[in-house]
Amino acid sequence: MSTSTTKTQRASSADCISLTNDPATLRRHAKSMRHHVLRMAQVVGQGYVGQGLGIADVLAVIYFSQLRTRPNEPFWPDRDRFVLSIGHYAIGLYAALAEAGVIPTAELDTYGADESRLEMSAPETTPGVEMTGGSLGHGLVQSVGMALGLRLQNRDARVFNLLSDGECQEGSTWEAAMAAPHHGLDRLTAIIDCNNQQADGPPSRVMGIEPLEKKWSAFGWFTQRVDGNDVVALLAAFAKARESTGVPQAIIVDTLMGRGLRMFEEREKNHFIRVEAHEWEVAHRQLEETP
Q1: CB half-sphere exposure, 81, CA atoms < 13 A
Q2: What predicted TM-score, i.e. pTM, was given to this entire model?
Q3: Could you tell me the sign of the dihedral formed by the alpha carbons of 151, 62, 250, 139, in that order?
Q4: Distance from first CA to last CA of the chain, Å, rounded?
Q5: Does the pLDDT value for residue 56 go beyond 70?
Q6: Hey, is 198 helix, strand or coil?
Q7: What would the 3-class secondary structure string for 250-283 be?
Q8: Which has fewest Cβ within 10 Å: 1, 156, 159, 221?
Q9: What is the C-alpha separation between 79 and 54, in angstroms, rounded?
Q10: Residue percentage of the chain with pLDDT more than 90
């Protein structure tokens, strides 16, 4: 593809999701997405509810202030890529895709069902899903490959990769973290969700990963750390990341598992939550009462 072709390849705003930097609008999207998460979890009575609730603010900012994509053409070649490395966060991704109009909201009721497109770990056959994220530790690797491929194709698309604090225990993550600055992939942004919880307990007990900021910086990334449930702080972090040139960007986000529902925020073990039938009405009510 020639350089002259590239200059005309930039996407028009037609048919793309309308983006905004208005915090109130983004908070409304996040709350709506949290209701979508509850809706899906209620179908099966259990699931990765805490993660879906905790990451809603981050996904709202990515999908409605950062990501260039077309709801009716989710695999449009010039789209920005959002890569979910943490497959079991699919419940949060589906909520974002429904909120953005990529998948029908009614389809959320099929979450986890046989032959549903909405499996508990997101498959790349689902519209808007860029990779199958079952085994952890591969998302950043694939994101580096995507960023390289887009550059070779002379496309100006960006790649956003959401990975977990637990994935920072994986060697493949750090190999990719070393490769991205080497190749100058400044259209790649890694978002590391630090909710201090993995299947076997807090990462500090399983295998310590701190100090994350110093580690990502030492690997050559422009690095920031913010409250992942603060929309204003997230907007500022993504704005600074876009201003960075020549190197990839890492945004470490500290999130609260179960954010928005006291009944889930306060559970000692909330990596995978089983919810009693009578608790759903309480959950929806608490969510409505949360600012």
Answers
A1: 28
A2: 0.91
A3: negative
A4: 49
A5: yes
A6: strand
A7: EEEEECCCCCCCHHHHCCCCCCCEECCCCHHHHH
A8: 1
A9: 26
A10: 65
Which residue shows structure tokens 């002379």?
154
Give backbone dihedrals phi and psi of 41, rounded to 5 degrees, phi first.
-65, -35
In angstroms, rounded to a whole number, what is the distance separating the alpha carbons of residues 215 and 213?
A: 5
Q: Chain centroid to CA 117: how far?
A: 19
Which tokens is 114 given?
A: 């046989």
Is pLDDT above 90 for 45? Answer: no
Residue with tokens 């979910």: 84
3-state class (DSSP) for residue 224 = strand
**Helix orientation angle between 171-182 and 139-152, rounded to the nearest 10 degrees:** 20
Tell me the C-alpha distance between 202 and 216, whole Å: 20
Q: Could you write out the DSSP letters of every residue in 113-178? A: -TT-S--SS--TTSTT--S--SSSS-HHHHHHHHHHHHHHTT----EEEEEESGGGG-HHHHHHHH
Q: Give me the mean pLDDT over the 51-75 stretch.
A: 95
